[in-house]
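Student: Please help interpret what follows.
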Amino acid sequence: MHRYRSHTCGALRTSHIDEVVRLSGWCHRIRDHGGLLFIDLRDHYGLTQCVADPDSPAFREAETLRSEWVVRIDGKVRRRPEGTDNPELPTGEVEIFITEIEVLGPAGELPLPVFGDQDYPEDIRLKYRFLDLRRERLHQNIMTRGAIVDSMRRRMKESGFFEFQTPILTASSPEGARDFLVPSRIHPGRFYALPQAPQQYKQLLMMSGFDRYFQIAPCFRDEDPRADRLPGEFYQLDLEMSFVTQEDVFAAVEPVITGVFEEFAKGKPVTRNWPRIAYAEALSKYGTDKPDLRNPLVMQNVSEHFRGSGFKVFARMLEDRRNEVWAIPGPGGGSRAFCDRMNSWAQGEGQPGLGYIMWREGGEGAGPLANNIGAERTAAIRAQLGLKEGDAAFFVAGDPSKFVKFAGLARTKVGDELNLIDKERFELAWIVDFPMYEYNEDDKKVDFSHNPFSMPQGGLDALETQDPLTIKAFQYDITCNGYEIASGGIRNHRPQAMVKAFEIAGYGEQDVIDRFGGMYRAFQYGAPPHGGMAAGVDRVVMLLCGTTNLREISLFPMNQRAEDLLMGAPSEVTPKQLRELHIRLNLPQG
């Protein structure tokens, strides 16, 4: 018999009854039933119930065992007594009568329990991540993550993509988030950077004559963490294609992502034939460019009903043509208590309040706004929004560019509070027609809105003749349930157009050469039209595992302060290491 096991802890069935077997694993739970000891033995594959009674030669050894001790157990497989089967376990019809126990690895007092799924302080969970990963839900999440990555890889290869690995040590790029810098020992005073994304390399692959690239790519950004973004590093399904239009990219990507979601959705419906929503439309209807389409609420512009009305606050605002009034419908929310609760919530978000109208029995509008604008205007608002008795509407007003984010939060809050969001489904969509540029109020200049390498719609002609703030880009996102899960674009592959695009954002041709010299040179020697995108592996896994925190689907994540509590990173280094790198520290005082 093998030194440690003849079977795994998830393998035994009724067909093994009367066999002598050997298992090794962790003592998951130990129960003493009046002299009868039950040990649930756990390994990566499952759990098996093992039993020792006073007649067992291993009973005395069994009494010494504690949770999470690693042991080898020999014994005979037998059917569980009638009425004690556990249908939740694949091994639930059998148990092992223990004849021998060997302790392979005793465990000290546990800083957090492995049995059960109770919450525990995050700093303890991260410091003892090896224990946390033994817990069933987290262990399963990590296995699901691996299966999802396998599925992505398989589907990409079946679609004709080839997997490449691009460099990890590269040049620093001043665009985007902060780089993680790596000092060069061989070249004193000079630094490599860890790639924020393989963007330039994958475009250079297209310049090199390869046609369909993909990679499960590690990316590194020195940015502040949040629940849906891990500090430091993340992974993306990165891809690029030559001789393609935006439609070709959509046709290649949509079946892959839909297929992955359907495979791991556990029966939940997944959108087919994804809707395409223009960026401006997404903001005006949903208040965000990553809308949760499970929420049926659609905002509408109701400015005309308040223009010149008796509600002077809105009427005066609307004298400035930049200002608008948007309505958020609230079906079933027509009670004073709910409307007051929404108003208090808005004040908690730093707003003066949230205006509302309620429609009561008989269809008459109620509330301060209704009293000020009169029955006719109130009825017109109700008709436009398609509301009925017992419903409400909430209003935000001002410059949409300033209130749109709050309007989106209010739409989500109303949908949540009224239980309108079907949480048992996945709603995927394309967001298209992103603006190429935006105005930077702080620096009083035009900046790139998203990816500076995207092709403007209209090409060079648009860059030379249009107001930059009206130019749209061949830029697109994939959203799911309120998260952006992928982003991409058709690339600006013509050197003249690339230089012009950067000039509009305040960069000269020499800046382009200095910062993106490799790609700029490549464009001079026959550049194919190309495009692609990158999907966030971590966010896709997070959604499919039903969690809202990326730490629940990552092996060894950092905490919110970008610290690895398990390994002690970031750490100090020795003076010798600093001398080798020609670095002297200049630490902040105090």
